Amino acid sequence: MGKLTILQPGLYTSVQDFGRVGYAKWGISPSGAMDQGSFLLANHLLHNPPDAACLEITQTGPHLLFSEDAIVLFSGASTSISINEETIEEVNHQWLHIKKGDHLKVGLLINGMRSYMAIKGGFLSDTIFGSRSQSLGITSKDRLYKGSTLMYPSLQETSGPLSKVKPNLPWIHQEVIQVYEGPEYASLQKEEKKLLFSTAFTISHSSNRMAIQTDQIIKNDALQILTSPVFPGTIQLTPSGKMIILMRDAQVTGGYPRILQIKADHINILSQMSTGTPFFLELISL
Amino acid sequence: MITLFQTSNHILEISWPQEIIRSILIEKITLQKALEFRFKNHLAFSVSGYHVLTLVFKNPIDKKSISEEIIEQYNHLETESYVPNYWNIPVYYDGKDLEQLAYEKKCSVQEIISLHTAPEYLLHFYGFMPGFIYLGGLDGRLHQPRKGNPERKVAAGSVAIGGTQTGIYPLESPGGWHIIGTCPIKMFDPQKSPPVWGKEGDIIKFYSITNDAFIEMRKYSSHQLINKTFNG
């Protein structure tokens, strides 16, 4: 088996797969890759099982040391890397052949917030409740830190890439996030609803894997509720007008009105939008 | 008594009137059991709140036919199938906010402890964080609005009161509830399956222990330690 050592963790790097589905009954969040589309694509292009654990890299990437040969592949936000100080621009979707002892540095991500580094065979950290996704209180650490190590399978004889998929950034020209009415949507006033769909929202700096907050507020009188189930993609509206868009690590229940629910694949789009980029909400019916 | 709302292609929510009462909890638990059996291969999982049961399906649903099934099951609920477990939870009442709470309630610390240990609490559901139980039944005299400025760190095991609720922090976290004691029993152990000792609908009673007993129980910190025997 190979061992990956994290020499520098970058801004926020963690092991992620599809997440823990079905454990909300014990208060366990689903977690998993923020941009599931890019995560699945990375594994697909490496001929990995779809749920193989990857690294989720945020904004600035890590410095990694490989103890054995490996093949890795990047998907998601654009990135350039260096292997033993030799820069490779625009690596997305390429099979990268890593040799024993190589240093891989991932630079600043551009055209998106998150990048996924898949490894042939997938990372082999502990599976807890069906997933290797790192999560506070569930896995031993909530993310990768300086000195963290991860095991991966030894490389078998393997044929090269068959499919050629051009690196794509589906979020780049996307200005609209599609949403369904949430359970408490009906309690909003007509003017409040109008404001929801005419405001250009921007993502605030306080966003993370638990929730994305917007800079804009929507003053409202929405019906207050008892603590109720929430999901990634649920948009809560607080009495003070804060819009809270719940993401993968969000709590499974919440006490704020749930006014909208984001269409599943648009959660992936939103997770790649940078702070300050404006977007509009569009109401769609089921 | 129930209304249905479809949140997305896969998510359907069943709501009762907004109240925290035993009869709703029992209907919710028995309906959940009936639907998990009825929709066995189609249901991915379900999640609960106080008055809400949300079903998440594996494939996009047809609201009309699913709704008819749900109403049918609701009209034939077997509430006798609800059999709660009873739990005695030890608490060492020496929380950092206990004296302040007694002062504000104009009573003694011992009276706070008596009010907190008297009721049989209902475990309504798990949420907020892994292993966090939402309990119903806190004595009205102990209701206390959350702190305006939450603590940055509330220790794991802290027993606290916030608003109209009481509960135990399973993990260290920021928190705005008033800390009245500590429980030596682990609320959540990810190495075990299930990782929690309780289930929705169980009945819980707190009892006061000494510091010595707390230290002793802490050594084991296992949920097997909870004494199940009190006369329910």
Give a quick rundown of the structure.
The complex is a heterodimer of chains A (286) and B (232). By secondary structure, chain A is mostly beta strands. Chain A has three helices and 20 strands.
What's the rounded overall pLDDT mean of chain B? 92
> Total number of helical segments of chain A?
3
**Mean pLDDT across every amino acid position of chain A:** 94
Task: Evaluate the radius of gyration of chain B.
Answer: 19 Å
Strand order of the largest sheet of chain A: 13-20-12-19-16-17-14
- Major sheet description of chain B: 4 strands, antiparallel
Which short descriptors sum up this protein?
heterodimer; A: 286 residues; mainly beta; seven-stranded mixed beta sheet; six-stranded antiparallel beta sheet; 3 helices; 8% helix; B: 232 residues; alpha+beta; four-stranded antiparallel beta sheet; four-stranded mixed beta sheet; 5 helices; 24% helix
Explained architecture:
The complex is a heterodimer of chains A (286) and B (232). Chain A is mainly beta and 286 residues long. Helices cover 8% and strands 34% of the residues of chain A. Chain A has 3 helices and 20 strands. Chain A starts with a strand and ends with a strand. With 232 residues, chain B is of the alpha+beta class. Chain B contains 5 helices and 13 strands. Chain B has helices spanning 22-38, 63-74, 98-105, 109-117, 211-220; strands spanning 3-6, 11-15, 43-48, 52-57, 86-91, 121-126, 133-136, 151-154, 158-162, 165-168, 173-175, 178-182, 203-208. In chain B, the strands form 4 sheets. In chain B, strands 1-2-4-3 form a 4-stranded antiparallel beta sheet, covered by helices on one side. A 4-stranded mixed beta sheet of chain B has the order 5-13-6-7. In chain B, strands 10-9-12 form a 3-stranded antiparallel beta sheet. In chain B, strand 9 (158-162) and strand 10 form a beta hairpin. The two termini of chain B are 29 Å apart. The interface between A and B is large, with 32 and 41 residues.
